[in-house]
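Hi R.,

Here's the chain you asked about this morning:
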Amino acid sequence: MPAVRTIKFLHRTVIIAPLYLLFFIVVLLLDLGIETLHDFFIVHIVFALLLSYATAHLVRGLLFFFGRWVVTRTSSKFSSEKQLNRYRECKQISYCSEEKSEHIVLLLHGFTTSSMDWNILANRLQEEHVDFYAPLLTGFGLIRQNPILSIHKEEWFRQVIDIYDLFADRYKTISVIGHSMGGMLACYLAEHRPVHELMISAPALFPQKQHRFYSRVIKNKLLSTYISWQIPMIPKLSRSGRSGPADTMDTKSTYQYFQYLIVPIRLLFAMLQAQTEIKLDKMMYKRLTLMYGKHDITVNNPAIEDFIQSCDMPFQRFIFGDSAHNIFVDFDREQVNNLVISLLTNTFTQEMKNQYNYECYS
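And the predicted structure, written out as tokens:
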């Protein structure tokens, strides 16, 4: 029962841990001598330390409890599979055509969301008989967040490499489409494995100003470790001008998809640490496509574009005027998905180029 687990958690963090500390302090004082207990200064220091320690555990326990309550409450419309610790709608999705294919597309979703983000594109790919696989990235779509309080960036790196290697024995070419954090992981994958079509949508490589504070924090290992322990859960950053929980223009559409409204800060730190590992100039691809919404206030897309140009890397860029961060579920979603299909099936014509805000850099 969730209530029983919560009580056990609070009991362990708020009561048991401080009692162990008190026992240690008493043993230490006895070892120093009973007369030490009469020292007014030492007694007050001991109790101040004990109170601080107990308070820290209490705050941590309450924040974690509140975070779990928010996730459970805001995710109640999704179907929970408690034995698997996930929401059914967030599970991985895939398609394999009846005819043998030499090409498959990997779809990597963004931070705090799930493979649900690819539902529209997945249906289109299936209609076109294009094989695809959209995994649920480690740490997302879970009912309970306990397993991800100590997650590291290497777990995501290992996951995408393992997925690629699994399909490399079956398919001649592998394309990758990644959005936001998924775009960052797509870039990492392209560094270490050759990619056919590399499509990155607003990749989480250059954060906007509101994320830069956390980027500075992770550079101090001691500080980041303490903060991630003391403040285990934080709400998603509010965005000026957005009425919904995500950086999208179409708020109604956004509410249909799963996302964490409050996340383990360890997840955020892991993503920011992963950004420092990406080396764009090492990527191996046949064609690189950068896509993003004109009104995106989550990722600094112009900085990404400028950096790719500075590396003399050939790429094509598409900007969608009626979308913000997640173009696959925003107002331009139909146009975006049509574009992706045409690029994957080599049916993108000169006439179609005139329909998009398109630039090619070679």
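Residues 40-74 form the longest helix (35 residues).

Let me know if you need anything else.
M.
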